[in-house]
Amino acid sequence: MTTTTKGSATEMPGDGPPPSQKSLLTGSLPRYAAPALLAATAALAAGVLLAFGALGIAQFAVFTVIAYAVVISIASRVVENRRQATDRLVTTIVYACFGLAMVPLVSLLWTVLSEGLARLDLYFLTVSMNGVTPSMDAGGVYHAIVGTIAITGLAAVISIPIGLLTSIYLVEYGQGRLKQAITFFVDVMTGIPSIVAGLFVVALWMMIFGPGKTNGAAGAIALSVLMIPVVVRSCEEMLRLVPNELREASYALGVPKWLTVVKVVLPTAIAGITTGVMLALARVIGETAPLILTAGSSAVAINWNLFNGQMMSLPVFIYSQVRMGGAINYERAWAAALALIVVVMLLFFLARLVSRFFAPNLSR
Amino acid sequence: MAKRIDVSGLHVFYGDFKAVEDVSMTIEPRSVTAFIGSSGCGKSTFLRTLNRMHEVTPGARVQGKVMLDDQDVYGPDVDPVAVRREIGMVFQRPNPFPTMSIYDNVIAGAKLNNQRMPKAKADDLVERSLRGANLWEEVKDRLTRPGAGLSGGQQQRLCIARAIAVEPAVLLMDEPCSALDPISTLAIEDLIAKLKENYTIVIVTHNMQQAARVSDVTAFFNLAGTGKPGRLIEMGETNKIFTKPEKKETENYITGRFG
Ligand SMILES: Nc1ncnc2c1ncn2[C@@H]1O[C@H](COP(=O)(O)OP(=O)(O)OP(=O)(O)O)[C@@H](O)[C@H]1O
Ligand SMILES: [Mg+2]
User: Fold this and answer.
1) Which residues, including other chains, have CB under 8 Å from residue B175's CB and lie 6 or more apart?
2) For this UniProt entry, which segments traverse the membrane (chain B) (predicted)?
3) In what order do the strands lie in the sheet with B217-223?
4) Tens digits of per-residue pLDDT, B211-238?
5) Are the beta carbons of B114 and A259 separated by less than 8 Å?
6) What's CA A258's distance to the chain center, in Å?
7) In this complex, is the C-beta atom of A131 within 8 Å of any C-beta atom belonging to chain B?
8) What does DSSP assign to residue A21?
9) Which residues of B touch A267 (CB under 8 A)?
């Protein structure tokens, strides 16, 4: 580029003005242009679709987005410049993708709410299906909630210590071959399909207790197999985020390594660890296949005993109700689905509280 | 309280790489010893071997002898944790514990070691240590606030308070002022001058004026060449090192001429 310092402001086509005279101003679309154009294209899309008699939400949204993207790019190209036009086009695409991603989520929540709320009342939450025939307008989900809480509770009690200690080993102590081997097997475990975990536990129980003796504990073990690798992975990430300087500061005060881990590293990482553990729990709480194989799918009564008899759980309850196929069964399934979502939400809320409670207080 | 450090024939390795070669020196109690030298010549490495902090680094190992008064730091039955209680350390970047208040940071040495302390005694220790670190007046009204909420210079003085609260005999400082402004630097230099009455102090610094200001004895380290280990070139009274060094290398470094 030449750096002439000509005084005149003549514009040379194909070549920008020399730097000394480059204007910082470009034309810009007024702020109301974007919403106005969006409204206009929306109206246009609605009009066209109406004329063809094909007005539907999906068609309308697609038409509007495409038309808007074209119009705003052209308008911006004319009034502003090329970079701005590209920016506006990409912005439109990003928002459209975001909207697209939200569609299934919102629609799922909406469906579960609208279908489930009808039956989800105190009665439904506090009675079991004991003595209720499938088509009777009675019965509830209490036994399944009990089962879900007991089974995932036991799974958490098994998985969290094992997972956390493994991750501590990997980050703080592990070296060489053993560390590599453990990391490898954790990766392999992450990939185990849940039904295989269920089969594994069924085989294990068959070997130890004989046929037909599976119970809630078997379900919990199957869930632990799925949960441990997730806990290890997420805790490992969180422990690695703790700066080495804090460990060194602690060592330099004459604090032994294990106390450093317990009192410096873990408290610093606790917020992330709780979130990770909760995600792992949320992953297994909706597992169905391994629980059908282990804890069974026909329990109707309340059973708090993990070591004796079948245990219903929320996902399995949903599955077996849908299998029955009657209108009332569908209602129960939706209500149970809503109950499951609520339980997971409550767990997340609890986790936030826990991590808020433990987290380092960094405010001034 | 202060103790003498006697190093003889010390070599430090990172795996197969020899970082420091054959250092022998005596560090006198109740004095400030400054380590100077170009980047990468092994000052930090050597400093960390004095309280066995290098053992935290995988692959780091040491040959030679370090005596603390009449005790062998690398003796067969010596617990590195006990060594570090005797020889404290302050790092280049202030590193208060983010999960703890100012108060808890100061008594972290006791707290993390599960030592029970009556409240009155803890209060007294906190005040004494913070006064010792010239920080008491600035923080006495907000002891329960998080330590990470202080300014960089205050954080560094908090780290010094934390280090002296465990009452070590020796205090090692690795470029304690390099992240600080001139005012905070001055505050810490004053502090070093005061601490020297009770402790043996070793300070690594890249700031020649600082070495001249605070230290009684200066040790100059240098590399034998790229990829070669660092060595102790010359050690002596700070005055003498800065005015009439014996070695040409030292003079070049101090006056800013190399090669
Ligand atoms: N953890 C480590 N692993 C391997 N080599 C290391 C490690 N730490 C330092 N070294 C090497 O040891 C040599 C000395 O490093 P050291 O950090 O002691 O230098 P320094 O004198 O403190 O430098 P600076 O003034 O920049 O802090 C360098 O060659 C460095 O690359
Ligand atoms: Mg260094």
Assistant:
1) B92, B204, B205, B206
2) none
3) B71-72, B60-68, B5-14, B17-27, B230-237, B217-223, B32-37, B200-204, B170-174, B87-90
4) 999 999 999 999 888 888 999 999 999 9
5) yes
6) 34
7) no
8) G
9) 99
Least Cα separation, residue B146 to chain A (angstroms) = 6
Rounded Cα distance between B148 and B127, Å, is 19
Which ligand has the nearest atom to the CA of B54?
Answer: 1
Query: What is the bridge-based pairing of β-strands B5-14 and B60-68?
Result: antiparallel
Q: Is B133 exposed, middle or buried (0-12, 13-18, 19+ CB in 10 A)?
A: buried
Look over chain A and give the mean of its residue pLDDT values, rounded to a whole number. 87
Give residue B20 CA to ligand 1 midpoint distance, Å.
9
pLDDT at A1: 44
| Closest chain A CA to residue B172 | A252
Rounded alpha-carbon distances, angstroms, from residue A311 to A140, A141, A149: 15, 12, 11
Please check whether residue A277 is in contact with residue A234, taking contact to mean a CB–CB distance below 8 angstroms.
yes
Asked if A255 has any chain B CB less than 8 Å from its own CB, the reply is yes
What is residue B68's predicted lDDT score, i.e. its pLDDT? Answer: 92
Q: What is the pLDDT of residue A12?
A: 45
Q: Give whole-number Cα distances, A277 to A273, A291, A304, in Å.
A: 6, 20, 24
The CATH code of the domain at A125-358 is 1.10.3720.10
Taking CB atoms and an 8 Å cutoff, what residues of chain B touch A245? 91, 93, 95
Please count the residues of chain A.
Answer: 364
- β-pairing, B71-72 vs B230-237, is unpaired
What domains are defined for chain B? Answer: 5-94+168-254 (3.40.50.300)
- Per-residue model confidence (pLDDT) at position A6: 44
Q: How far is CA A124 from the centre of its chain?
A: 27
* Reported confidence tier of residue A34, pLDDT bands at 50, 70, 90: confident
CB contacts of A260 in chain B (<8 Å) are 112
| Closest ligand 1 atom to B47 CA | 18
The whole-angstrom separation of Cα B189 and Cα B215 is: 10
**CA dist list (Å): B118 to A97, B107, B108, B110, B115:** 61, 12, 15, 12, 10
- A258-296, pLDDT tens digit by residue? 999 999 999 999 888 998 898 899 889 999 999 999 988
Length of chain B (residues) = 259
The greatest distance separating any two alpha carbons of chain A, rounded to the nearest whole angstrom, comes to: 98
- Annotated domain spans of chain A: 28-116, 125-358
Residue B251 amino acid letter? E
End-to-end CA distance of chain B: 43
Residues facing residue B33 across a β-bridge: B202, B217
C-alpha distances in Å from residue A161, one per residue of A155, A229, B45, B69, B76: 11, 12, 37, 45, 35
Q: What whole-number distance in Å separates Cα of residue B183 and Cα of residue A165?
A: 45
Would you state the structure tokens that stand for residue A118, as one six-digit string? 């009808």
Q: For residue B200, give the 3-state DSSP assignment.
A: strand
Q: Is the CB of B57 under 6 A from ligand 1?
A: yes
The interface predicted TM-score of the complex, written ipTM, equals 0.90
Gap between the Cα atoms of A70 and A92, Å rounded: 10
Determine the Cα–Cα distance for residues A163 and A226; give it in Å rounded to an integer.
Answer: 11
Residue A8 — very low, low, confident or very high, per pLDDT cuts 50/70/90? very low
User: Sign of the C-alpha dihedral, residues B62, B68, B69, B74?
Assistant: negative
pLDDT bin (cut points 50, 70, 90) of residue A363 is very low
